[in-house]
């Protein structure tokens, strides 16, 4: 594994710079997000056969019918989270539902103090754990579980991000959102939109943003 970090070396550094330039052109303006995306090697999260395509702006297969989200979507969700009341000050505790290959979890771990990532497919998560270990992300914890239940043992969260689309926001996730916390999640089946929910002392405030395309949020574990 360590050879994968050093192997592509300079090439991945340069292709990452191009990826970040593209993100800027696509409208990502948060410098903290751009600098973290510059620093996290994306190729170690995909199969070696696909490593050369890791920095393209596309979703790639990671096995089990799942995909690694396209860089723009990862950046956009991170940027939206960072605009939440509690997270705009830096620090913060974040829950990610849908670890997949672990790329977004790694990006979040370089941005926030504590990150918990939940995945329903055990095998995907073991691979994500390995990559996270390689990057020495000590503030990132994984749990093999159904993220529709949230993660009560670590709640409340200042930020919750869901990487799979559901027909509605699971109630457990709203319960586990701190006051001042923000949730970002794709909602819908064929026509999906990003939903942003902020919790304040007087309740939940909802906004509907960009049209998106995510794999479905499923119940139970495998
Ligand atoms: N965050 C990933 C994207 C993963 S794709 C990235 O960095 O690219 C979405 C993931 O959500 C899939 O791995 C899928 O298995 C997972 N998923 C779907 N429903 C889930 C649920 N209820 N709980 C946890 N994970 C779920």
Describe what is shown at a glance.
With 222 residues, the protein is of the alpha/beta class. Helices cover 31% and strands 27% of the residues.
Hetero ligands: S-adenosyl-L-homocysteine
Q: From the 3D coordinates, which CATH architecture would you assign?
A: 3-Layer(aba) Sandwich
Q: Estimate what percentage of residues fall within beta strands.
A: 25-35%
> Looking across the biggest beta sheet, what order are the strands in?
5-4-3-6-7-8-9
Q: Termini distance?
A: 26 Å
Helix % is 25-40%
Q: What order do the helices and strands follow?
A: HHHEEHEHEHEEHEEE
List the helices and strands and how they pair.
Layout: H1 2-7, H2 9-25, H3 31-39, E1 60-63, E2 66-68, H4 71-82, E3 93-97, H5 103-109, E4 114-119, H6 122-134, E5 140-144, E6 157-162, H7 171-175, E7 177-187, E8 192-200, E9 203-212
Parallel strand pairs: 3-4, 3-6, 4-5, 6-7
Antiparallel strand pairs: 1-2, 7-8, 8-9
The protein binds S-adenosyl-L-homocysteine.
Comma- or semicolon-separated keywords:
single chain, 7-stranded mixed sheet, alpha/beta, Rossmann fold, binds S-adenosyl-L-homocysteine, globular, 222 residues, two-stranded antiparallel ribbon, 7 helices, 27% strand
């Amino acid at each position: 594994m360590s050879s994968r970090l050093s192997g592509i070396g300079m090439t991945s550094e340069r292709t990452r710079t191009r990826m970040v330039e593209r993100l800027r052109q696509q409208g990502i303006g948060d410098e903290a997000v751009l600098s973290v995306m510059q620093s996290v090697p994306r190729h170690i999260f995909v199969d070696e056969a696909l490593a050369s395509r890791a920095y393209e702006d596309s979703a790639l297969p990671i096995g089990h019918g799942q995909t690694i989200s396209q860089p723009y979507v990862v950046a956009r969700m991170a940027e939206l989270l960072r605009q939440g009341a509690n997270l705009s000050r830096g620090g913060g505790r974040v829950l990610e539902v849908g670890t997949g290959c672990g790329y977004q979890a790694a990006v979040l771990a370089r941005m926030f103090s504590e990150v918990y990532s939940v995945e329903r497919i055990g095998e995907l998560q073991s691979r994500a754990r390995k990559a996270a270990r390689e990057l020495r992300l000590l503030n990132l914890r994984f749990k093999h579980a159904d993220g529709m239940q949230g993660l009560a043992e670590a709640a409340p969260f200042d930020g919750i991000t869901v990487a799979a689309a559901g027909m509605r926001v699971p109630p457990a996730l709203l319960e586990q959102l701190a006051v001042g916390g923000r949730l970002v999640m794709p909602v819908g089946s064929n026509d999906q939109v990003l939903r942003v929910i902020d919790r304040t002392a007087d309740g939940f405030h909802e906004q509907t943003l960009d049209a998106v395309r995510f794999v479905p949020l499923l119940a139970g574990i495998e």
